């Protein structure tokens, strides 16, 4: 997975490698990735402790309902358990409390993420790498990411399907299962020239779902001349709605349909994602 001088920089900046990270990296990329991954794991625990101490369960319940696009209350607990790998990073880095959106009032500052609030109160006590991680991850939108290159056990190149931006991500476990053409729902965060998935779906989405994503991209292009991160933030609900539809369709039991045939016994047809 060697990057050529004139190729797009794997950090996702959009610049050529020779003009970006090629001469700037002060440490080997793998070491930077390990440091970033450890900082992310440690920061996640700190943010969870901070949230539990300050806000308690009600904030989590309200955020879970919003993430799942407001299902019936009796369905909420079971549904959110299926999406924890996506929901918790979204809750910590993306969710903001809006008092006008809920009948239950919370003692939480409006319009700021939990990670940003933690940073504003604890910045002097936080490691510099974690400060940069919060700055990079806060409010960064989730999107669909297609695997375009893969080195099993080392990492893969993921192309953000709406902007078309490729980023090389180091990922041990995920790269062993992924294949070129697979699609993930997630969010790439880049710090110090190393890129990490901070939030990723628990399912690999088949390539057969790409036309649905292409349709949504066309909708974005009709409204915005250029698709940027701000565009993805604007379309956050529509992107999440499509992901939840895909998840439900992939995990629901297949439909069994009888089709009589004169020469063969009745067979069971399994309907996919057509």
Polypeptide structure, described:
By secondary structure, the protein is α+β, with helices and mostly antiparallel strands. It folds into two domains: 29-137, no CATH class; 143-251, OB fold (Dihydrolipoamide Acetyltransferase, E2P). Helix content is 43%, strand content 16%. It is built from ten helices and seven strands. The chain has helices at residues 29-54, 57-67, 73-81, 84-93, 114-122, 128-137, 172-177, 210-223, 229-234, 236-251; strands spanning 143-151, 155-160, 166-170, 183-191, 194-200, 256-259, 267-270. Strands 3-2-1-4-5 form a five-stranded antiparallel β-sheet. A two-stranded antiparallel ribbon has the order 6-7. Strand 6 and strand 7 form a beta hairpin. The longest helix has 26 residues, at 29-54.
Keywords:
274 residues, alpha+beta, OB fold (Dihydrolipoamide Acetyltransferase, E2P), two-stranded antiparallel ribbon
Number of strands: 7
Range of strand content? 15-25%
Q: What composes the largest sheet? A: 5 strands, antiparallel
The helix-strand sequence is HHHHHHEEEHEEHHHEE
- Widest sheet: strand ordering: 3-2-1-4-5
Q: Calculate the terminal CA-CA distance, rounded to whole Å.
A: 35 Å
Q: In the residues, how many domains can be counted? A: 2
Q: Indicate the percent of residues in helices.
A: 40-55%
Mean pLDDT reading: 86
Based on CA atoms alone, the radius of gyration comes out at 21 Å
Low-pLDDT runs: 257-274
H/I helix tally: 10
Instruction: Give the helix/strand class.
Output: alpha+beta
Global outline: globular
């Amino acid at each position: 997975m060697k990057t050529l001088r004139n190729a797009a920089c794997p950090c996702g900046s959009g610049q050529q490698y020779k003009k970006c990270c090629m001469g700037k990296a002060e440490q080997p990329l793998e070491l930077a990735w390990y440091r970033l991954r450890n900082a992310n794991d440690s920061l996640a625990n700190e943010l969870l402790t901070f949230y539990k101490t300050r806000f308690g369960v009600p904030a989590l319940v309200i955020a879970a309902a919003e993430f799942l696009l407001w299902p019936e209350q009796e369905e909420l607990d079971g549904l959110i358990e299926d999406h924890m790998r996506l929901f918790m990073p979204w809750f910590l880095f993306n969710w903001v409390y809006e008092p006008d959106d809920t009948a239950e009032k919370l003692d939480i500052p409006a319009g700021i993420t939990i990670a940003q609030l933690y940073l504003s109160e604890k910045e002097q006590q936080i490691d510099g790498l974690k400060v940069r991680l919060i700055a990079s991850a806060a409010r960064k939108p989730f999107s669909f990411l297609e695997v375009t290159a893969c080195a099993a056990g080392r990492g893969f190149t993921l192309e953000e399907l709406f902007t078309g931006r490729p980023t090389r991500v180091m990922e041990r476990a995920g790269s062993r299962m992924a294949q070129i053409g697979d699609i993930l729902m997630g969010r790439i965060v880049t710090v110090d020239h190393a890129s990490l998935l901070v939030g990723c779906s628990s399912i690999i989405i088949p390539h057969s779902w790409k036309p649905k994503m292409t349709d949504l991209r066309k909708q974005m292009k009709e409204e915005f001349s250029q698709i940027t991160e701000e565009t993805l933030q604007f379309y956050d609900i529509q992107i999440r709605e499509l992901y939840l539809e895909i998840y439900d369709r992939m995990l629901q039991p297949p439909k069994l349909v009888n089709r009589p045939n004169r020469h063969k016994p009745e067979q069971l047809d399994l309907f996919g994602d057509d």
